[in-house]
Design brief:
With 189 residues, the protein is α/β, with parallel strands linked by helices. It is built from 6 helices and 5 strands; from the N terminus they run E-H-E-H-H-E-H-E-H-E-H. The chain has helices at 17-32, 47-50, 60-70, 88-94, 121-132, 152-183, and strands at residues 5-9, 43-46, 74-80, 106-113, 142-145. Strands 2-1-3-4-5 form a 5-stranded parallel beta sheet, with helices on both faces. Helix 1 packs across helix 6. The chain is globular, with a radius of gyration of 16 Å.
Length: 189
C-alpha cells in the first residue's frame, strides 16, 4: 500500500519529546501499513520552526507545510497538553486550513500528557478539531503519559498493533471516497 504519511508537531520547543514521540509513532504505524518512513521521520511539519511565521500575511514556508499536510493520506497530529488541551501553536496552524481541507485524510491524534487527568483531552479536544477539518479519525487518539516515555517503543508497538488494521481499512475507504468525490457531479441548486 502506498500512502503519504505526514507528522505535524505542535510543540513550541525545538527538539521536543513530543517531536521524538510523534516521529516514532509515525514510524510504528507506517511499518504496520506497509509504508517506509526514512530514518529522519519522513515528512515532518515541526511547528516550532514555523511559529513566528504563522501570523504573517504571507509565508512560503507555512504555505508549503499546509500543502504537505493537505496532501497526506495519513496524518499524525501531535502536541503536548497545555492547560488540558493541545497547544495554541497547533491551533493557529490548523486554523489556516480551509473547511474540509483534510477530507480523504486519515488522522491519528496524539497528545503527550504530564498528568493522567488530561487523558481525555485527545478525544474531547483534538479529535473534534481534526474531524471538523474533514479528516477521518478511525481510532481512539493516543494519550501518552510523560511517565511512559522511557518505555516508548513498547507503548507505541502495542498502540500501532491495535490501530493499524483500522487505519488500513480507513485508507481503503478514504481512497474510494476521494475517487467518488472526484467523479461526482456538482449539485444543481
Amino acid at each position: 500500500m502506498s500512502a503519504s504519511i505526514v507528522t505535524v508537531v505542535g510543540n513550541p520547543r525545538p527538539g521536543s519529546r513530543t517531536l521524538q514521540t510523534a516521529v516514532a509513532a509515525t514510524a510504528a504505524i507506517a511499518a504496520r501499513i506497509g509504508h517506509d518512513v526514512p530514518d529522519g521521520g519522513g515528512d515532518v511539519v515541526d511547528l516550532s520552526a514555523l511559529g513566528p511565521q504563522l501570523f504573517a500575511a504571507e509565508s512560503p514556508e507555512v504555505d508549503a507545510a499546509l500543502k504537505l499536510v493537505t496532501g497526506a493520506s495519513v496524518l499524525v497530529v501531535a502536541s503536548p497538553t497545555y492547560k488540558g488541551t493541545y497547544t495554541g501553536l497547533l491551533k493557529a496552524f490548523l486554523d489556516r486550513l480551509p473547511p474540509n481541507a483534510l477530507a480523504g485524510t486519515v488522522a491519528l491524534p496524539l497528545l503527550v500528557l504530564g498528568h493522567p487527568r488530561h487523558s481525555l483531552a485527545v478525544e474531547v479536544h483534538l479529535r473534534p478539531l481534526l474531524v471538523e477539518l474533514g479528516a477521518a479519525v478511525p481510532t481512539p487518539g493516543l494519550a501518552l503519559l510523560e511517565a511512559d516515555l522511557p518505555r516508548l517503543d513498547e507503548v507505541l508497538a502495542g498502540w500501532a498493533d491495535r490501530v493499524a488494521p483500522q487505519v488500513a481499512a480507513a485508507l481503503g475507504g478514504a481512497g474510494r471516497a476521494a475517487e467518488a468525490a472526484g467523479t461526482a457531479q456538482p449539485a444543481q441548486g
